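Listing S7. Sequence submitted for prediction.
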Amino acid sequence: METGQTARFQHILNSLSLGIAIIEGPDLRVQYINPYLQQLLHEAWNVQQVTGRRIDAVVPADINAVLMPLLAQVISSGESIHKQDVPFEGFLERRGRTYWNISIEQFPQSQATDTGSTTELLVTIEDVTDPVRSHLHLNAIRYISSAIASAYALPHVLDRILTAVHEMVGSRRCAILLLDQPTTSLEERPFDIDGITRSTVQGSQHVTIAAQKGLHVQSYHWHPEVNEHILLGQVARERRPLMITDTGLYPTLHLPLVDDHGIPRRPGSILSVPIFEPYPQQSSAASSVQAFNRRTRTVAHADTILGTIEVYHVRSRGFPTEEVQLLEQFAQQAGLAIQNVQLFRRIEQWARLASRNAHQRKNIMQALPDGVVIFDPRWRIADANPAARQLFGWPDDTALRSLQEVMAQTPMMFPQEIMALDTPDAITVLEARARQGRVDEFKMLAANGQTYTMRCSYTPVRDELGDTFAFIVLYHDVTEEVAARERIEAEVIARTAELAQRNRALEVAKQVQEMQQKQLEILLERLPSGVMQVTAPNNTITLINTRGIQILQLMGLALEPADDPEAAAKQALGLNAQELLSPVTTYGPAGAFVPYEERPLHRALSRGEATEAELRIPIKDGQNIYLLANAAPLRDRDGTITSAVLVLHDITTIKNLERMREDFFTTMAHELKTPLANIRAHLSALLAKDLEWSLEEQQDFLQTADEQVERLVRMINQFLDASRVEAGALRLEREPILLPELFEDLQERLEALINTSSRRLQISIPPHLPAVEGDYELIMSVLSNLLSNAFRYAPEGDIVYLEAEPVIALQARRPQTVAVTLRVTDHGPGLTPEQQSSLFTRFSTFAATRRPDAKRPGQPEATERRKGSERWSPATGLGLYISRGIIEAHGSTLQLTSSPGQGASFSFTLPVYGEQTEQDSTDQAAMV
């Protein structure tokens, strides 16, 4: 082709309003593209060189996904492809949806060879948007008009309109919104949209979504009140379409949510077109409104707004003029549809009023699946539909025959309580049922021999004057419904019984669980040890018993209220255990400081170790509290430490007893060691071969050894007596005791002590004192111990008193002595309350630590103690413990009255022999 012809040919192609491109294969590179097609590409390619580039680099990815397989198909098969009316939505913001004719064909082989290319494709694109849109619009109008001209329901017509909107403008998200009642008045309340001050709709109107496409399910029941936040109110005010290109500028605007691939989103842009009522209705109500407007001199709007058609987009974008014009046309069709539905409703009302027309009645009656029988005022059959005649087995010539006559000739049977036609007042009963609007449900045997469950309703038909001119009886078959209901009722009964049984089982289980919970709570509260549960993540106390609170308070922690452990336990819940316990100074058994990280609770929470430790905690006044702490972790199913349980045992008393026992055994070892060493020294001196002793000296050595042996025997007997007292195995040999003889014997036994102590014994005993009952030797040992202590602690030259005082009981006739109180009193240093509380304990070392020094004035000399003083021995700390046990075994109590500097008085009471009551005898026997 000559150069001039090529230039003219290219000029023609560049001038065509048709897109032309030549694609070179197999690389699918652009060999030629005319300006019309190039300006349709992305803006970036409008000014760049496109020739020589691959088609997939020029065309967007979504178009490539469709175009590339078509190009490959033409290259492989050589057959042309022609696509007609292809929709394209790439120009939505400028033109809306467009339509194109696309052709892809291969150049003839000769031309391809001439150009030197293996394959060349000619692609032509023609914009057919206007004819296609006109065709679609015409079809949509016909489609919608056919629905409008028929008796379709309003939702169906509106759905057709939205379908046409979708096909015409390509919007996948649109809706038709209707007002609940016409907009006739406006209230001037300014608010701003698009920078324009507008007003809102007056009253309490609401918006309903009558039809929708692409809205999220959350907006299906969107039914807001029309106010300044609803766009429909603005459209009603402006009476023109409104568009919002970016809803983000109006955050207070209330909009339905659109569906963005299953996610509810607020629209990014929206176009709202009003729907006007096309022909105002001249009803009586409208006439009244117009009359009112004339009286009040107000002007009503010519057109009433029924609602809006709204198009939504997820992103912010504009709306082309064509799209707005199409929506306005569809809004007119929507107004016609709404008005047409109202017209059809009126027609249906007129049809119901004209239902007495025979032809229409016959058609309606034949179409009904239920049995319908129409009676005249005298209850003669006026008509019966085929369903009723088939049910009852009636012939076709039943018109104007009485109900009794027809029923008598048919095999069907009614329950007598529903329709007893053989009674004289059957018609009266039926008419009463009809006037009452009764609905009966009964089982009946039909003409075909089957049993049905029927629901029978009676309706009187009245004319304009209110006179009844017919009765309609409707027989509705509810056999399957009743059977299903009976099955459901039976299942409900069975399930109710099952649930009741389960509820009873759950109630029993709940009661058992509550009982176990209460038992655990009681057990936890009654435990002598403190129990605490602490969570692992945050060291929070979640459980603590009252004993635990008491132990923590003993440790010096200020847990309030201090006088109410139960309330303090509730207040302690939620406290941080580490912050509470870490400041407490704690030592181990050996006296080493124990940091919080090495204590059992922290090791259980942090390391998961179950440990036990003995702890010593200093408290006020130099005292210590000893605790045995046990801690164990609690784990989840996966082994994670969730919490730990700490058990605190207060072993302070045990430790004090151990210390007293150690002191006791230390004292006893010392006491036993002294006489044993004395005996061994004297025996060794006698056995020495190099020494010669006179008979008097040998006798003196042997007598000293014998005294020391006697001392050892007494101490051992005291050990045994203490063990018997503790075990409750002390046996009494009760006998009558004459107190004068007892005191005389006691004075003889303590003669050495009395003579060597520089103190005097004064005995006070009233005359004619009756004999008392008790174990003579045990009472003697108690008084010996009390007098020995009194002589030990009384000042030098002072008097120790031994008194017997009768206990008088006022009888009916005369006073009578029923018991005798024995009392030993000295004027020694006295005892403090703390000393008195520990004086009678088993391992008390008070006597040993407080006994007078051997060098104290008035104490017997060593030679004096050794000679004739077999009853004398230093205190061992067991005398008062044994004495109290002996007195308690006699059914009495060893009482102490003392104060510092005022001396001490020990007393106990013995019953008179033969005068104790039966109950006293029983108690004494039980104590023994």
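Caption to Listing S7: primary sequence and predicted structure tokens for the chain studied. The mean pLDDT is 79. Residues 373 and 384 are 4 Å apart (CA to CA).
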